[in-house]
Design brief:
The complex is a heterodimer of chains A (244) and B (284).
Chain A lengths: L7 H10 L13 H13 L4 H7 L6 H12 L8 E2 L9 H4 L2 E2 H7 L4 H13 L5 H13 L5 H11 L7 E5 L2 H4 L1 H5 L2 H15 L4 E6 L3 E6 L8 H17 L2
Parallel strand pairs in A: 1-2
Antiparallel strand pairs in A: 3-5, 4-5
Helix pairs in contact in A: 1-2, 2-4, 6-8, 8-9, 12-13
Chain B lengths: L4 E7 L3 E2 L14 H11 L5 E5 L1 H4 L6 E5 L1 H9 L4 E10 L2 H14 L5 H15 L2 H8 L3 H15 L3 H11 L4 H10 L10 H12 L3 H13 L5 H10 L12 H14 L3 H15 L4
Helix pairs in contact in B: 1-3, 5-6, 5-7, 6-7, 8-9, 8-10, 11-12, 13-14
The chains are: A mainly alpha (244), B alpha/beta (284).
Chain lengths: 244, 284
Amino acid sequence: MQIPGLTQEEIFTLSRNIGNQDKGFKAKSTPFEINKLLKKAIDNGTTEENLAKILGLEATTMFYRHSYIFDHLISKLHKKVIYGSSEMKKDREKEGYITFQVANELSRIKENFQLEVYEFITKNHIHGWQDVKSIKELLVINDYKNSKKIYEEILQRKGLDKHFRVGDKLDLNSLNKKLFKESQQDRDKVFFKLVSKIFDSQIESVSLGYRFYEIVFKEEQIKISQKILEENKKRILEEIEQYK
Amino acid sequence: MTKEFKFENVPVDKITTGFFQVAIKNAGAKIDELEAGIKAQGLLQPIGVARSKITEDSPDFDWEVLWGQRRVAVFKRLKRKEIPAMVLDEVLTKEEGMTYALMENVARREMNRTDIFNAIKLIWVQFGDEKKCADVTGIPLPLVKDALKAQRIDRLKGGREVYDHTTETCSLPTSIAHKVLDAVMKPDNVSVDKKKGKKLADVLAVQDVQMRNKVLKAALNTPEGDVDGWVADAKNMRSYIKKTIELVDMENEALSEYANSLGMEDVDVIKELVITKLQEDGFI
């Protein structure tokens, strides 16, 4: 196997780090290091298609992704990027590493917001690329204004906003047709009264949807056993059914 | 091979080519002519896309071309953002994908949507069956479905107004506009609730894709509900996951004994131990 510009050792490193998901190898290099090798090969005249062929890849996507990330991600974060299959993943929390896919989403955010988003996700242990993608989309929709509000929204969605929550499924239309037809605001008012009778802890807010409900408590943690919680959930449904 | 294709306008930069293609070598042939044709008349035939092993592993690409890779190349050259496509939302193997590519190459006709609708109109009115239209006319089923969908916007009372509001005022993709029409379709099946449709589009326009999909899912789950209720459902659609663990007798007895000594139930002890450990190690 020959790739102009690369030594056999470098070719071996490439093959053990790129497209290795099905081969069972754990990536030992970082995407930053691999990107340098890819660049070296391409600068020495190897086409991306040829490189893919030599490495046994079906597409050139991975090369495109590497160069996109390191062309657009702020340099301060380059060495924080690791592969999802990397052995370094175990140190993710301690070292503030982000996976390749997270870096890919982060690199598509305006440069002056990247560090802020990086700090937000690492501080709150948000590791999923879909969440970073959502942050990116919300930043664009809001013209990069009110970023704090966007972060709050993401924390709420993920249940990371320091409030204990109880929620479950229901079928409101079958349980109570009257409540089903009320406006959302009125439904929530009624629901607040109903659940206040059931739980002793202080409630921050409630939401009664058609298929799901949720109760958000003021406290971060409330003392309640699983058994009582299940009983309370049954009572919630009964109260909804009996409401006139 | 009667899988469900849906017509959508797909972002061009989310499409990759090559994995399913049967004629990669000739992909560049006569591309200038095709470009001139598309510039002059627009795209007469939607391309076909599905998901593949490649797109599943990629955060950059959502779709792999089944047919129409030259059309994709032209759209990229023209820097167009979206391309009309028949979308099969399934992961196909290389063999399956190549079969579709071959089938389309054989079955292709130079017909636009209006031509197709005119060809199937009588059969559609008589039987109301998409497959029957395809079987009788020999037009591929995805193209039949596409033509019927395009006609539906104007066929539905209020459909055009809601569709234009969604795509033009709210700048949402056409695929979302079709879902909005589905969500606000009245039980008479010939009209849509215009007010509800526009409100839904307004709400979707300020949401990210993840939340947009949740609101639409909520709307389709409870079509008789209102937009605020759908949003509430989308937000409450959180997963409260139950995990099952297996313990051998000795472990189970020890757990029960420990729980008894604390005056707690077994499950509460497990939950508390797990959460304490996760907090200590900085995972939550």
